[in-house]
Amino acid sequence: MEAYTEFATVYDTFMDNVPYEAWKKYLVDILKAEGIKDGLLLELGCGTGRMTRLLAAEGYDMIGVDNSEEMLSVAREYTMENTEILYLLQDMREFELYGTIRAVVSVCDSMNYIMSEEDLRQVFSLVNNYLDPGGIFIFDMNTRYKYEELLGDNSFCETREDSSFIWENYYDPEEQVNQYDLTLFIKEEDDLFRRYEETHFQRAYEIETVRKLIEEAGMKWEGVFDVETGKEPTACSERIYIIAREQGK
């Protein structure tokens, strides 16, 4: 079962508690500190385009890349009039652009969907290739602590007026692979709720492993921060930001 097919239609409904505005401010603060106040930016794993649109509203020329046609369809519907955002249906491991860009961002644990170190290194290599000289890459990742201690082998559910879901989670600590089987019930035009199923896989990466892959891809490691505190991660950090810099092709 493919991920983000029917889920795309209700994704923003169930993600309404995600602090996109706070994340946007963090990204923009870093970008402006780097002197990147405008110009061309890329978001990898843009999904329905929530962050893409927020950055476009800050004056950036945005490109959004995602491998879910359904998610991009929602993104295009939401895109504001007079806001030109280029959405590309591409796999992050193989994405292609027409030229270089000032910065790349990725949020909502999109990088955790890359299931092998080889593929993650390839993503980093492509980012380095398309960044302007000295350009930066800012992305977040879920931590092993979150998968092991918070998600684990648990089930979650949520009900809204027109949709609901059951999330059955499984985490393999040896492979560091997190699987969740998502059962969706979505109200349709005939007022009946139809059932859909998707399976998602993510992988936990140690910070040291990510740093090694970034450096092997030719990028410079700039730092890692806890998303909640903005400080150095602890053993209980759930989500982290990582910043890397282009330093030669």
TrEMBL record:
One Gene Ontology term from the biological process aspect of the record: methylation
SUPFAM superfamilies assigned: S-adenosyl-L-methionine-dependent methyltransferases
Organism superkingdom: Bacteria
Signal peptide feature range: none
Matching Pfam families: Methyltransf_25 (PF13649)
Residue ranges of domain Methyltransferase in the record: 42-135
A molecular function (GO) term: methyltransferase activity
Record keywords: Methyltransferase, Transferase
PANTHER family according to UniProt: TRANS-ACONITATE 2-METHYLTRANSFERASE, TRANS-ACONITATE 2-METHYLTRANSFERASE-RELATED
Designated name of the protein: Class I SAM-dependent methyltransferase
Source organism of this protein record: Roseburia amylophila
